[in-house]
Specification:
Elements lengths: L16 H13 L6 H14 L3 E5 L2 H11 L7 E4 L5 H9 L3 E4 L11 H6 L5 E5 L10 H11 L2 E5 L7 E2 L2 E2 L6 E5 L12 E5 L2 H11 L7 H5 L20 H12 L1 H19 L5 E2 L8 E2 L5 E5 L8 H10 L15 H7 L7 H7 L2 E4 L7 H18 L3
Parallel strand pairs: 2-3, 2-4, 4-5, 5-8
Antiparallel strand pairs: 1-9, 6-7, 6-11, 8-9, 10-12, 12-13
Helix pairs in contact: 1-9, 2-9, 3-4, 3-7, 10-14
The structure holds pyridoxal-5'-phosphate (PLP).
């Protein structure tokens, strides 16, 4: 078993000799910052997704923020999103000066509830940020038609959703802009990094300029053969572009994504096989032709009233048995900042709150062996058996 001090880690990056060689090659090349590898990675990712434009950035958080700025979001505007997400999704809204407006989630998909979304649109609403929780795509047909009808833009947080698809189309081609994460735990990693994809040339150009100080040309164009030292500052931009060390890692990871996804799928299938039919568990929605799942997370729910222990105790038991688990997510409205600033109570978003109290994310990464996965599922069943109310 791939344990560390007897514990199977919740997550590990899947890096091999090819990644290491690629990084060494870049280090020896003398070009570390944004340059040829970043361009190559953008082109390869763009092609893989089937989007018109891809802009490599230093995180998904940056990608979301720059996209909002490029969409003209600022003070007085409202942006709709889910509380069942990571801190970054809502923080970037506040950073633009706009106000995040939360919409509760749908109990089955754990994604934003589109019926409720509609009721929260006001004349101040500018953008919707759907989050594809765990890699399970939101219904982009409904979200896009609502956005079109009400004159809103859609920016999807696809931190979990590479590679995911909706009705056969890749996530990354369905919204006005999409931000992906290549953080260390995500399906594809560059250590730290992200990518924005869009089919809108104007947005693409704005995001690219914003990512690099608002300069008219990047350093590669200034310092490479035939380049010119001249540039113009078009507006005060930010410093959020990717670097060639990360991009060289990303290029190798992108080449390996099918192989890595196939391992993830085997683990997911094993979890379903071994955990299906247990009355104390609610298993995640399965993928189908409409919903192409990226399986970033395998999040089970403890069915209320079926176990004598709480979720917290269940996670402790898993840890004691040598299995690292996690909880995705503590809903944003339950954190001190959002609670105090907006006066939220736990029950302000009752579905997110209820789901939060029952969720456990099991280890799921391509570095795990099937034996590891079998051990995880067996441990879940042993704990379930021990504490089941008979
Ligand atoms: C990881 C994550 C992010 C942030 O990604 P970074 O690349 O670390 O900035 C944003 N949203 C969600 C839902 C995430 O899980």
């Amino acid at each position: 078993m791939s344990t560390q001090n007897g514990l199977l880690p919740f997550s590990l990056p899947d890096l091999g000799d090819k990644e290491i060689e690629a990084v060494i090659h870049t280090l020896k090349s003398g070009w570390l910052s944004i340059g040829p590898k970043t361009k190559q990675f953008e082109e390869a990712f763009r092609t893989r997704i089937g989007a018109e434009f891809a802009i490599a950035v230093n995180s998904c958080t940056s990608g979301l923020f720059l996209s909002l700025v490029a969409m003209g979001v600022g003070v007085g505007d409202e942006v709709l999103t889910t509380p069942f997400t990571f801190a970054a999704t809502a923080a970037v809204i506040l950073h633009t000066g706009a106000t995040p407006v939360f919409v509760d989630i749908d109990e089955k998909s754990l994604n934003i509830n589109v019926d409720e979304l509609e009721t929260k649109i006001t004349e101040r609403t500018k953008v919707i940020i759907p989050v594809h929780f765990a890699g399970y795509p939101c219904d982009m047909d409904r979200i896009n038609s609502l956005a079109k009808e009400r004159g809103l833009r859609v920016l999807d947080d696809a931190a979990h959703a590479f590679p995911a698809s909706f009705k056969g189309k890749m996530i990354g081609t369905l919204a006005d802009a999409t931000a992906f994460s290549f953080y260390a735990t995500k399906n594809l990693t560059t250590g730290e990094g992200g990518m924005v994809t869009t089919n809108d040339p104007e947005l693409a150009q704005k995001i690219r300029l914003l990512s690099l100080h608002g300069l008219s040309r990047d350093a590669w164009k200034r310092y490479s053969a035939g380049g010119s030292w001249y540039y113009e500052v078009l507006f005060p931009g930010y410093k959020c572009h990717m670097n060639d060390i990360s991009a060289s890692l990303g290029l190798v990871q992108l080449n390996r994504i099918d192989e890595m996804m196939s391992r993830r799928m085997s683990i997911v299938n094993l979890y379903f096989e071994m955990l299906r039919g247990l009355d104390y568990l609610i298993l995640p929605e399965e993928a189908n032709e409409r919903y192409g799942h990226a399986w970033h997370l395998f999040t089970i729910r403890l069915r209320p009233g079926r176990l004598r222990i709480s979720r917290d105790e269940f996670v402790d038991e898993m840890n004691r048995a040598g299995v690292g688990c996690s909880v995705h997510f503590i809903p944003l409205h339950m954190h001190p900042f959002y609670r105090d600033r907006f006066g939220f109570r736990p029950e302000s978003f009752p579905v997110a709150e209820r789901v939060f109290r029952s969720i456990v994310s099991l280890p799921l990464y391509s570095k795990m062996s099937l034996d590891d996965a079998r051990h995880v599922a067996t441990t879940v069943r042993e704990i379930g058996d021990r504490y089941r109310i008979r």
